[in-house]
Amino acid sequence: MTTAVIADDEPLLRDELRDALAEIWPELEIVAECADGVSALNEIEQHAPDIAFLDIKMPRMSGLEAAEQISTNTMVVFVTAFDDHAIQAFDQGAIDYVMKPIRVARMAKSILRLKQRLADQTSTSGAPKRVAQSLHQSDAKTPRYLKFIQASIGRQVRFVMVEEIVYVQSDSKYTRIVTLNSEAFIRKPLSELETELDPDMFWRIHRSTLVNVRSIDSVVRDEAEKMSIKLKGLADRLEVSRVHQSQFRGL
């Protein structure tokens, strides 16, 4: 069982992080939640978790200061609203640096990196868990995303350009690709397709839905605080689940 500690001084953001991790990595066990750096360091030393997700700016002790004092073989991921500590974070041996508001697509990539590191440790006897990386090393290769998707429309196979896609949705054992003029189906799981699409263009808004942000007309919140998206050129209304609502904060 892979274990983790999460630390953030804002309860709502801590909840969002926990919910995002539960969706992406349900097998991960959160052994402690903390609201300040001192508590985080104490819990890490007590539980020796595999991973610590730390906010940087916290009371009593910053996440950076806590990470510097960790004596256990715990991998650190910084989750923060500030991008001015990236170099320092990687100098502390951080595995990743994730910006708030949390986007599940971005967090999913961090989880893949963590799982790969755990797998590498399993295959390499005695390998330390915390390995320093530079920001330039981690971002040296620009990811290449899909430009088109080969999908079935009836008995035809069509090449759908990614920029034409309005949204993508899980549909039973298929994934449905919706454009302004048609819909098509592919057998690739939504979670796999998500890693191949540009996360700046396609946002996950629900466990079963990705939306092209360029196709969003407006975001609506009803009296029950449920959020939904109206699309340009389509009557479809897409639900935004609670865990994904933070990415629309301030819009």
Q: How would you summarize this macromolecular structure in one to three sentences?
A:
The chain has helices at residues 11-24, 37-47, 63-69, 86-91, 104-123, 135-138, 190-196; strands at 3-7, 29-34, 51-54, 75-80, 96-99, 148-153, 156-161, 165-171, 174-179, 183-186, 202-206, 209-212, 216-221, 227-231, 237-240. It is α/β, with parallel strands linked by helices.
How would you describe the overall organization of this protein?
- By secondary structure, the chain is an alpha/beta fold.
- The chain is 27% helix and 31% strand.
- The chain has helices spanning 11-24, 37-47, 63-69, 86-91, 104-123, 135-138, 190-196, and strands at 3-7, 29-34, 51-54, 75-80, 96-99, 148-153, 156-161, 165-171, 174-179, 183-186, 202-206, 209-212, 216-221, 227-231, 237-240.
- The strands form four sheets. Strands 2-1-3-4-5 form a five-stranded parallel β-sheet, sandwiched between helices. It has a five-stranded antiparallel β-sheet with strand order 10-9-8-12-11, with no helix packed on it.
- A hairpin with a 2-residue loop joins β11 and β12.
